[in-house]
Amino acid sequence: MIKVVAACGNGMGSSQIIKMKIDKVFKKLGIQATIDHMSVGEARSAASSYDVVFCSASLVDNFSCKNSRTKIVGLVNLLSDVEIEDKIKENNIL
Amino acid sequence: MFKDLIEKKRVGFAEGFDCWEDAVRAAAQPLLRDKAIAECYVDAMIECIKKFGPYIVIAPDVAMPHAQGVNGVKETSISFMKVDRPVRFGESKEHDARLIFVLASVDNDSHLDMLQALVAAISDEDILAQLPTITCIGDLQKILLQK
Predict the structure, then answer these.
(1) CB contact under 8 A, A13 and B56
(2) How many CB pairs under 8 A join A and B?
């Protein structure tokens, strides 16, 4: 079971969309995950307790996780199942 | 979701805007008119974009301005505006959008069904491809009738 957080500016709009979308793709790929959603501010301090952070590509710079095991995944098109699936594979999220 | 937008006449059309702030204000107009939101919520959405950048462009051509909105939101609601000339929300072309969905929620959860319906509708590539071509509410109705 991996721990995932979806983050956006205030934790109620695009992070919810990301949560809906990655939930669908994880199910398709048979990946077991718990998915939370929150604002970038909250996610920044909580990131280290998650395996993966998903956010809009333009928010990636808010996270500096050089020494962390947490993967930060930025999405350009939040509606694209294909992009989400590709990025899950690219980042070896299992 | 779109049915509700049409019935409540929360759909707008514009040629273009000098800046994205003006576009957000114009797109929110139907919600202000219906008193679903107050002016301070519009300011909050603009502040949010200034603070966090163009992340509200959730997909190519689609912007979804919103804020954490207990303040100034009386009704969980959406309005939609189609702009002929893409609105520039950021430096990159990736952040240009002609379709603007203003989202308002009275709390952190009550908008989820609405958001789910919106995402389902605009994840449909046929609908998303046709939306930038509409010029009136009638066109929007036609797209939905085909479905």
Answers:
(1) yes
(2) 71
Q: Which of B52, B105, B123 lies closest to A9 in CB terms?
A: B52
In this model, does residue A17 exceed pLDDT 70?
A: yes
Residue A13 to residue B64, Cβ atoms within 8 A:
yes
Q: What ipTM was assigned to the predicted interfaces of this complex?
A: 0.88
Domains of chain A: 2-90 (3.40.50.2300)
A69 pLDDT more than 90: no
Q: Which two tokens stand for residue B3?
A: 């049915």
Q: Is the per-residue pLDDT at A67 higher than 70?
A: no
Q: What percent of chain A has pLDDT over 90?
A: 80
The pair of structure tokens assigned to A53 is: 């952070």
Give tens-digit pLDDT for A43-66.
999 999 999 999 999 999 988 766
- Give yes or no for a contact between B21 and B61, defined as CB atoms under 8 angstroms apart: no
| B24, B100 contact by CB (below 8 A) | yes
Instruction: Tally the residues of chain B.
Output: 147
| CATH number assigned to the domain with residue range B2-142, chosen from the 4 options 1.25.40.10, 3.30.50.10, 3.30.565.10, 3.40.930.10 | 3.40.930.10
Contacts of B60 in chain A (CB under 8 A): 76-77
